[in-house]
Amino acid sequence: MTFSMVMITTIYTAFNHASSSHSAGGNDIYHTNRLASTGLTYVTYTAYQSLDLRYSQFTTYNDWFKTNDTNIPLVYTQIILVVSLLIYITVKQRYNMTNMWMYLLMIINLIGTILFPMVNDLLLLYIIIELQSYSLYIITGVHHKSYNTTRASMLYFVTGGIASIGILLASYFIYNIVGSCNITDITNYYAVYRSNTLFDSLDILILALMFKMGTAPLHSWSIAVYNYAPTYITGYISIVAKVSMLSWMYTNSNLIHSDLLMFMFYISIIMAAYKPLFQVNFKTMLAYSGMLNFGYLLLPVCTQDPSYYMYMMQYVVTHVMMFLCLLASNEFVTKPNSQWSPMVNVNQLIMPNKLLSMCLMLCFLSLMGIPPTPGFYGKFYVMQSLMKFNFTVEAMSMVMFSVMATYYYAYMIKQLATNLTMPYSQPINKSVALVMSMLLVFFLTYFVYMFNILDVISMMLS
User: 191 with 49, same domain?
Assistant: First the structure.
């Protein structure tokens, strides 16, 4: 269905581009984006109607893809995430960020994002991750008139290529040992022989995926890319690829050496809690914030606990709402840093809209873990699972570095609080306001139906 959306959008965009050369065509791009948004909404509904496939351990294409209880909720989460982020470019903004091929590239990227958690073969893993990565490289550099955007795209391409070499190298070593690239065969081999050499080969694969995710200590490139890229592109690339890769790791966590994940967890939370204390660039701060939260998500991957779903769900909602607030606030910038990133520093967070400022403050409070925001419940269930598995030191480390990270969140909240004293208020785009209001309702009432979500997750995993 998503592939059909790619074909339809490609043909429509091509005809639309040909006809726009003979007419004004000012709103043609927005019409294309709205058509694609409607189609993706239908894809989401179709995926929901196919829920029963998870009961039969359904496999397709010579056992290359596997659908089960673990990866189906992750696929739904990723579709909803992408649709929520893409709604922003369906309406005209003050600083125009539209491109006629943007939506098509994002749908192609969505194909890789959806398929990645279901991959059951190492060769296909490489193909799908390259489908996802190459579309992200092009999306990052789609606004090529900006020097920083081109710089970010080239840096992303070079570092992604190095990580891809690691994936191929690990696949070669694993095939040399097991004699198969099928992950089910690798799991069976590991259950019988438990070879240390296999552990080393799988460690190379996990390190390559961590490199692509931008977790510490392999994170410096990601901070630079997120800083150079336009704000809208940063909001997209900083979460979509990470969610799909980490979801695959969670689905196949029985193959992963837990000591390696623990090492990456400690390095990530230390770097992400300490480094932003000396920053004034809020895009850099949010990049470290993403590293901190995905460091927390490595713990449920180690324990194979359903708290992963709770934390991932609340973080996706918080991330989308936070970047929509930042993008909406671009309307009020009088001296933009550039057309692609009007706001860069924390002192530019001046919004003559009190509700918008309060929404962004709620997002930061959620990232801090202040009750009753969704971020509190996400961290609570992760820590509860850690105590259940007797990971006391990791739970204490999570609390300690969360408190340390509170400082730079509070620094941004302090700047936003100055907007609440403004005597006037300016409205934002009505379409963006509608999406933000829907997310805000979910955000504020999360604690009401949180237990229903837990029941649904328990039923799906039982």
Answer: yes
Domain-terminating residue out of 212, 237, 254? 254
Q: How far is CA 221 from CA 87, 151, 156, 160, 226, in A?
A: 28, 11, 7, 10, 9
Dump strand ranges (E) for 258-411: none
Helices (H), 179-281: 183-193, 196-213, 220-228, 231-237, 240-251, 258-274
pTM of the shown model: 0.88
The amino acid that residue 349 corresponds to is: L
What is the H or E stretch that residue 75 is in?
helix 72-86
Residues 168 and 301 in one domain: no
CA 118 vs CA 32, 72, 275, 357: distances in Å: 30, 8, 35, 39
| 205, 225, 254 - which closes a domain | 254
The conformation of residue 338, written as its DSSP 8-state character, comes to -
Token digits of residue 267:
């390095």
User: 316: closest CA among 217, 250, 239?
Assistant: 239
CA nearest 284: which of 210, 237, 236, 234? 234
* Domain co-membership, 152 together with 279: no
In terms of domains, do 316 and 438 share one? yes
Per-residue pLDDT tens digits for 311-340? 998 998 899 899 888 888 888 877 777 777
pLDDT tens readout for residues 153-182: 999 999 999 999 999 999 999 999 888 889
